[in-house]
């Protein structure tokens, strides 16, 4: 319609989008989303779309939650902003800090606020180095991270992340950040076919062992911390073997290295526990979060800092770090309302015992599709890989563009599913019902069928 066309024209003339090919955008025009309700959004053309990605892994409570809107309105009316610098504080930030101390694992009783996941990870980088400095081990500067991990788009965030496409733009990573291989069996076996007969559990231990190798290579007394997402999200929902994280924890403990759990996606119930580290069985020193803390209704991020770090970092004077919007009262008020609503609905247990298992059986049924292998879920995230020749385990080539083809069919069928190379991934709102899960998987199968038909026609 004409409204869509006019908006698309302005959009491509003036709006620089994140992670977007602008030539492509100009030729096709953006799909402009105008409203949402529950797990659905609508575009300017009136199409109803099932949001299988919760916006961008964040709208965990779904759209149209009036309690969150009211919390924001109320706080904006009373006090839209005041800062927490120089011995001042604001009520919602205090209330949220206490609530976070209650719902996070016992080692966490303190939070540092930011407005995003990227800022939260930047905060940690400075905190970790400051911690070792105060401890008299200034040489412990190196942070070990993983290839294909995602920790944000700021200079430190993109450096901690392991996306080569991001490193190439802007001369990253910054010094002192090194990466090890991710725990993705299928990818690793491409380069190391001799490993193909390992069991999942054996592979998990092997993959964690790359951390120890890297520690020894760098020098154990120079390593400050290890950072990872419990489940790598943007990298393609890489669910690690059950043995992986406990082994990572053991290695960090052995060398006295701080463990950072990036909970930006996995935090706030996504894996069926309040935080992903609880599902994975680790006891991190830091947890960074954002997204789900407010269900994306307003930007807020932060870092939970464990008692043993707080005791060192704040024992003497200040830590010169903070953002104008650290502890923003409106964002914190929305977060409090969001967490209380999650508690009222017993949402985390629902993901663990009800909707998570339901999604598992529904989504993993896609494994019978001729294109699909490794369809797998953990709580409310899921991913699958598409194969060129399933019988012979042959992967697609990059220029087959299979993910983009499938994503297009999903969109045309009214489903948002994300493509990462040859993987299709979802992270639906945690409030999704059984009927909506059935609908999601039905639409995904239709898109896979259409992709299969396209590929057959091409060859
Ligand atoms: N960490 C993880 C695991 C993420 O998935 C993201 C964003 O997707 C970030 C950090 C960065 O968060 P933000 O985009 O809020 O800066």
Question: TL;DR?
Answer:
The chain is an alpha/beta fold and 459 residues long. The chain is built from 17 helices and 16 strands.
Low-confidence stretches: none
By CATH, the topology of the largest domain is Aspartate Aminotransferase, domain 2
Beta-strand share of residues: 15-25%
Q: Count the E strands.
A: 16
GO molecular function, one term: transaminase activity
Pfam families: Aminotran_3
EC number: 2.6.1.-
Cofactor: pyridoxal 5'-phosphate
Structural notes for this entry:
It is a single chain. Helix 5 (91-103) runs parallel beside helix 14 (329-344) and helix 10 runs parallel beside helix 11 (244-255). The protein is globular. The two termini are 36 Å apart. It has helices at residues 2-14, 22-28, 54-57, 66-78, 91-103, 117-134, 155-160, 164-167, 185-191, 200-218, 244-255, 276-280, 307-313, 329-344, 347-364, 402-413, 434-458, and strands spanning 33-37, 40-43, 48-51, 108-114, 142-146, 177-180, 223-228, 258-262, 286-289, 301-306, 372-378, 381-389, 394-395, 415-416, 418-420, 423-426. By secondary structure, it is an alpha/beta fold. A 7-stranded mixed β-sheet has the order 4-10-9-8-7-5-6, with helices on both faces. Strand 11 (372-378) and strand 12 form a beta hairpin. The mean pLDDT is 97. Pyridoxal-5'-phosphate (PLP) binds at residues 116-118, 121, 150-152, 229, 233-234, 262, 264-265, 290, 301.
Blueprint of the fold:
Blueprint: H1 2-14, H2 22-28, E1 33-37, E2 40-43, E3 48-51, H3 54-57, H4 66-78, H5 91-103, E4 108-114, H6 117-134, E5 142-146, H7 155-160, H8 164-167, E6 177-180, H9 185-191, H10 200-218, E7 223-228, H11 244-255, E8 258-262, H12 276-280, E9 286-289, E10 301-306, H13 307-313, H14 329-344, H15 347-364, E11 372-378, E12 381-389, E13 394-395, H16 402-413, E14 415-416, E15 418-420, E16 423-426, H17 434-458
Parallel strand pairs: 3-14, 5-6, 5-7, 7-8, 8-9
Antiparallel strand pairs: 1-2, 2-3, 4-10, 9-10, 11-12, 12-13, 12-16, 15-16
Helix pairs in contact: 4-14, 5-14, 10-11, 15-17, 16-17
Bound molecules: pyridoxal-5'-phosphate.
């Amino acid at each position: 319609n004409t409204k869509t066309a006019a908006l698309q024209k302005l959009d491509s003339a003036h709006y620089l989008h994140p992670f977007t090919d602008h030539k492509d955008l100009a030729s096709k025009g953006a799909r402009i989303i105008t409203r949402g309700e529950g797990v659905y959004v609508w575009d300017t053309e009136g199409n109803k779309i099932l949001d299988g990605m919760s916006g961008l892994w964040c709208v965990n409570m779904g759209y149209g939650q009036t309690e969150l809107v009211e919390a924001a309105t109320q706080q904006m009316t009373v006090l839209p902003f005041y800062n927490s610098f120089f011995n001042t504080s604001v009520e919602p930030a205090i209330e949220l800090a206490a609530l976070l101390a209650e719902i996070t694992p016992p080692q966490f009783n303190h939070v540092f606020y930011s407005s995003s996941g990227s800022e939260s990870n930047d905060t940690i980088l400075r905190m970790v180095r400051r911690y070792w400095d105060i401890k008299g081990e200034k040489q412990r500067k190196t942070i070990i991270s993983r290839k294909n991990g995602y920790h944000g788009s700021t200079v430190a965030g993109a450096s901690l992340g392991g996306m080569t496409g991001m490193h190439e733009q802007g001369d990253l990573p910054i010094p002192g950040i090194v990466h090890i291989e991710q725990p993705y069996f299928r990818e690793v076996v491409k380069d190391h076919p001799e490993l193909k007969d390992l069991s999942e559990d054996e592979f998990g231990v092997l993959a964690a062992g790359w951390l120890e190798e890297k520690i020894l290579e760098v020098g154990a007394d120079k390593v400050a911390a290890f950072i990872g997402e419990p489940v790598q999200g943007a990298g393609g929902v890489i669910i690690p073997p059950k043995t992986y994280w406990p082994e990572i924890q053991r290695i960090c403990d052995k060398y006295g290295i701080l463990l950072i759990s990036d909970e930006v996606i996995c935090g706030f119930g996504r894996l069926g526990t309040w935080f992903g580290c609880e599902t994975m069985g680790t006891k991190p020193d830091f947890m960074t979060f954002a997204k789900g803390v407010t269900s994306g209704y307003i930007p807020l991020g932060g870092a939970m800092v464990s008692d043993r770090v707080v005791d060192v970092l704040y024992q003497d004077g200040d830590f010169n770090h903070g953002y104008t919007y650290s502890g923003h009262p409106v964002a914190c008020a929305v977060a409090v309302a969001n967490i209380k609503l999650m508690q009222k609905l017993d949402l985390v247990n629902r993901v663990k015992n009800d909707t998570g298992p339901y999604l598992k059986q529904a989504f993993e049924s896609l494994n019978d599709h001729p294109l699909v292998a490794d369809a797998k879920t953990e709580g409310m995230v899921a991913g699958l890989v598409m194969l060129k020749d399933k019988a012979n385990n042959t992967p697609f080539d990059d220029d087959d563009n299979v993910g983009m083809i499938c994503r297009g069919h999903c969109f045309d069928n009214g489903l948002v599913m994300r493509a990462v190379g040859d993987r299709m991934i979802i992270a639906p709102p945690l409030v999704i019902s059984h009927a909506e899960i059935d609908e999601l998987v039905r639409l995904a199968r239709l898109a896979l069928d259409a992709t299969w038909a396209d590929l057959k026609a091409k060859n």
